[in-house]
Design goal:
Blueprint (H helix, E strand, L loop, with lengths): L12 E3 H9 L1 H9 L7 H8 L6 E3 H11 L5 H43 L5
Antiparallel strand pairs: 1-2
Length: about 120
């Protein structure tokens, strides 16, 4: 594990293994409990702290995630999650329709190409 860090939070950069080590540290756990943040399994929460999926967490990303994780989930948290999930579902549906359209268009072009190059195919 890294030595204690006392610099500005924007200089913090942890990969997943370092993040898990830090979150399992008893002193860190104590500070988090004082902030009403419970970290049952840090490995499961790494994606929450790494929203852009770069595989590392910065200080500002940690602060933003800690703010979101404080206290018990509220109804508006659940509604926001549900709305995000619904939006993602809509985007996946749009992608599915678009892909089906493109596949159909490619099949039509392939058939036309075969008919144009092979007169016996007609």
């Amino acid at each position: 594990m890294r030595p204690a860090f006392s610099g500005p939070t924007d200089e913090i950069m942890l990969d997943e293994a370092e993040f898990i080590d830090v979150m399992q540290d008893p002193v860190v756990k104590s500070y988090l409990e004082e902030l009403d943040i419970v970290m049952y399994n840090p490995a499961d929460l790494f994606d929450t702290f790494d929203p852009d999926g770069r595989g590392r967490v910065t200080g500002p990303e940690m602060v933003a995630a800690f703010v979101k994780l404080r206290g018990e989930p509220q109804k508006n948290d659940l509604v926001a999650a549900w709305l995000s999930l619904r939006g993602l579902h809509d985007k996946i549906d749009e992608l599915r329709v678009s892909l089906a359209h493109h596949v159909h268009h490619m099949e039509v072009q392939a058939t036309a190409s075969r008919n144009w190059t092979d007169p016996s195919a007609s």
